[in-house]
Write a structure and sequence with these properties.
Blueprint lengths: L2 H14 L2 H22 L6 H5 L3 H17 L6 H8 L3 H35 L6 H29 L2 H23 L7 H5 L12 H26 L3
Length: 236
């Protein structure tokens, strides 16, 4: 079977599982809902991050999206049925990753655009300029997409949505902040911290905004590679 029909079948799964569109909607709503109050209370030191502060919470919805899209395959023998129709495990996994990445990127870029417009409306003349604002909006979309793929790869390894979320959500909400406060520049190598460098007016890191996104991309690629390896080595 060629790649196109496999991707089409994954798209049908996406439309039939209500929690996936819901997670994408939550990604947009959480980001905007937490960004607007942060913009209103901004001190002016970093207007771009004030406008995009809610991405810290929107990325939780992104990992829920990536996790759910994969973990649903491990319920009720669904993966066994899928692989009986698509024997090429690598082809199926590539289609699954694509079916996660495309809607996540579309909604992520929309989230970035809406968040930027809301932030500029609240901050007024002290808000980010259009140049850095567009960079932040694009960075927002890419970061959310990469976090969804990172979660998808980990969920393939763990074969459990609960286990994946139990690892990633405490990491994002607790561990990342503690390590960030204690270790200085080392925190910039964490997947969530690195990607958010693109959301700062002047990132205090040698990585820079695009270097930070590249680090997050490496984390996502490593997770997907581990997921592909696990899929090939283990029974459905």
């Amino acid at each position: 079977m060629s790649f196109a029909p496999v991707l089409h079948s994954e798209w049908i799964k996406f439309r039939s599982l209500r929690s996936l569109p819901g997670a994408l909607a939550a990604m947009l709503l959480a980001t905007v809902a937490f960004s607007v109050p942060a913009s209103a209370d901004a001190d002016g030191s970093d207007p771009l991050f004030s406008a995009f502060f809610g991405v810290t919470f929107g990325q939780i919805a992104a990992i829920a999206f990536g996790t759910t899209a994969v973990s649903s395959e491990f319920h009720g023998g669904a993966l066994r049925l899928t692989l009986s129709a698509v024997p090429g495990r690598g082809r199926w996994f590539a289609a699954k990753a694509t079916a996660i990445a495309l809607p996540a990127l579309a909604v992520g870029l929309l989230t970035g655009a809406v968040t930027l417009l809301a932030g500029r409306a609240v901050l007024g003349s002290s808000g980010p300029g259009w140049g850095e604002g567009v960079r932040g909006a694009v960075g927002c979309g890419l970061h959310l997409t990469l976090m969804a793929l990172f979660a998808a790869g980990l969920a393939t390894v763990l074969r459990s949505g609960i286990a994946t979320l139990s690892v990633l959500i405490p990491f994002l909400l607790i561990v990342s902040f503690v390590v960030g406060d204690m270790s200085g520049g080392v925190a910039d190598l964490l997947p969530d911290r690195a990607g958010q460098l693109a959301l700062h007016s002047h990132p205090d890191s040698a990585l820079g905004p695009w270097g930070g996104l590249a680090v997050t991309a490496l984390w996502a690629a490593a997770a997907l590679l581990a997921g592909w390896w696990s899929l090939r080595r283990r029974d459905a």
